Input
Amino acid sequence: MIAMAVFVLCLWLRLEPGFSEWIEILRIEIVYIGPYILIAVSVVVIVASFLGCLSALQENNFLMYIFIGTQVVGFLGYVAGSAVLLDNTTKNSNMQPIVRESMRSLIMNSRYDKGQEILAMIQENIGCCGADGPGDYIDLRKPLPRECRDTVTGNAFFHGCVSELTWFFEEKTAWIAALAMTAAMFHVFHIVMTFVLTRALAKEADETTGYRR
Output
């Protein structure tokens, strides 16, 4: 069930229209690396869950050892996927320099209609101004657009789009990473309990053989 939840959330993150559009515009496709890993691992875990049930019902030690192997893969995959996801979507992550460069490039090319449209969409929807704040427009000798101002107070937004986008991504990816780490914890439990079951079955088989003799 947890693997299904991780799979669905990662798929939603990848296919959400507005989200994917911003990622394409800002050239931060690295955000998708973590979800891709977690989707692949989730598929393996979902299939392995049926294998675990089958091996336990048939009391087949060989299938159980295969199941233990899949649980190790699941644990490593979820930990690695969560690490990559957070490394590309949180504060001081690999995403921030790319967003900063993309925003400054858009500001420099804001004289074109397409650049103005993209800037307006990002800054209005997120409530941010420039890459690191209104000072970016001053540094690049560009006029401060109305999208950089609060419609109620008229004051310029204090935070830049790098910070606001990071908080936006963190909110979406935190739940996925938390679920993935929860699944990783359960994989450790599965490994231990399956190993105990294999030992118990082996002991039972030895006792049955000894009784027959």
The longest helix spans residues 161-212.
